[in-house]
Design brief:
The chain has 45 residues and is of the alpha+beta class. 22% of the residues lie in helices and 40% in strands. The protein has one domain. The chain contains one helix and two strands, in the order H-E-E.
Length: 45
């Protein structure tokens, strides 16, 4: 679902994990756009 060229939630999760990150939340930023916040794993320093 979505517009041509959209990136699905599973793809974002997989890419974040590969980069050593994790998806913390997804939220709408415009009528046709959403954003996924990424964070580091573990405690911050």
């Amino acid at each position: 679902p979505g517009r041509s060229g959209h990136v699905g939630h599973n793809d974002i999760q997989e890419a974040a994990t590969t980069a050593g990150l994790h998806a913390t939340s997804t939220f709408a930023i415009a009528p046709d756009w959403s954003a996924t916040k990424l964070g580091t794993r573990g405690r911050g320093r």
